[in-house]
Amino acid sequence: MTLQESLSQHIKQAFVTLYNTPLETVEFQATRKDFEGDITVVTFSMLRTIKMNPAQLGEELGAYLSEHVDEVVRYNVVKGFLNLVLSDAYFMTFFQTVCANPTFGFVSPSDDQAVMVEYSSPNTNKPLHLGHVRNNLLGYSVSEILKASGKKVYKTQIINDRGIHICKSMLAWQRYGNNETPESTGLKGDKLVGNYYVKFDQVYKEEIKELEAKGLSTEEAKAQAPILLEAQDMLLKWEAGDAAVVSLWEQMNAWVYAGFEVTYKALGVNFDSYYYESQTYLLGKSFIQEGLQKGVFIKKEDGSVWCDLTSDGLDEKIVLRADGTAVYMTQDIGTAIQRLKDFPDVGGMVYTVGNEQDYHFKVLFLILKKLGFDWAKNLTHLSYGMVDLPSGKMKSREGTVVDADDLIVEMASTAKEISQELGKLEGYSELEKAETYTTIGLGALKYFILKVDPKKRILFDPQASVDFQGNTGPFIQYTYARIQAILRKSPVETKDEPLLEYALHDKEKSLLKQLQLFPEVIQQAASNYSPALVANYAYDLVKEFNSFYQNVSILGADSTSEIRFRVQLSQAVATTIKNAFSLLGIQVPERM
RNA sequence: GGCCCAGUAGUUCAACUGGAUAGAAUAUCAGAUUUCGGCUCUGACGGUUGGGGGUUCGAAUCCCUUCUGGGUCACCA
What we know:
- By secondary structure, the chain is of the alpha/beta class.
- The chain is built from 21 helices and 14 strands.
- Helix content is 54%, strand content 12%.
């Protein structure tokens, strides 16, 4: 039982004893720095149960608690806040548990229901860009956080591998590609295919101009450009299973997948399963029939099928075209159901998709509920804002996108520039140095993106790039590396049993209090799908450590028991930084 | 136009989901330290939480209204 639970019980007991009234819940919060105390009971909310002066109530509860609970040594009351001071012994006992558990704060999975997290989900006609980077980092981090909070997690993605956009790349390659391959050009497969997507667009634009010169309107020109017609024809052939088209499609997609894998590896993300739209785009149709029978859907005169959501404050939404073909919504319905068949222990899903699809997912979840799936209540759209550049929106056709691979390389070289002067990597091989620079560069990028609330849009300045000071990934990594240096020089064995009796210095106590928050942070981050909470926690911990570092001498302390405690405490901080960063997918270097 | 999201120090972000005097970083200025590792630490300056109303012991947070920016309202995905 945690101290909070125990305090809560005592307070409820106090209510019965003192006032003969039962109390529902007790509200705790960490005591603000400006007041003395370690934990605070909010008495305001209790006034609903019992009519009395909040300060007097605080006094009486404080007196009761310090008498009945060993850990409470003092208390003070400010308005409706009862601040409790806890004993050193309590903190030292806590410290022992931290030292004994290298994954303190992580909850091992209970084997009830799993969560499926979908993220990335790219189109296969162009390389990944900065927007995908945010998606990948968020999806991966949320998965890790959910795992740490005790959930079983399946990471997946749905690859948009069919459609007119792929045909455009295929057509341009067929016409202008001269049998180029990733091997012959040395290009990553996704880059090669992306280049032909751009090529298509160039030719398309020229053709539109020509048609306009012949007197056609812009609308007509756009619809009648020969290269577009040819691409549309190619899509029809693909759908008909034309052998030549399908084989070209397989070939080019294979190049793209190989390219994506390289990027995913560089980003440090991974997946447990893959879904392909070419295999799922027909899936939902059978459920439309079922929905019609249940009265969830209605058929119009032209044969198209709709879901009327006006009573829920939304519009009517089409789920099947008049010609009987599926739309986006249809396949998402089918895919969701399919996933639960494939993974029977899944009880909920998280879709990591940009906020421009907020409406789509609102509708999707509602339809699945109406179809009667009980898991539909456990669906979450992890919606995130766009990544903007100072120059404005990213447009792939205008060449203003920030390519994911380029970005990673750029971040590493910035890290190199900064770290080289510092020269603590002596004795490292060139390879090890390069790895360290990549770790720092990626750390900067990931932290920069993840520390912001997903809902908010990010302004990313590639020129000014990412700061290495203040609330940044490298600053936290740097603190970790500094602690490692201390541990290397330490004369004491950190594996020794932690002390139990020790008079805590203020700064030591603050650090312990900060460590204590970690399990709660994980749970909260999991229920809010918010890596930002973890990021900001790590930074607070580092600040607390620096303050400790400045105020006490670790290796030069007076007594060996002091050295031993402080070294062990430093190690616990380092471990927690490492664990917190692992939830963000960020590595920590031993030196930097 | 309907619906959704965001708006907080000059700038980038917080604020435990309704709690104490709205906090950090950065930038600027002033100091401490010169070392266990250099980018450490302590101050100062900086705010009508876009504006206006309301709800209550208490509001950046909830409600109404209004302004600004973005998204979305496809038989595209």
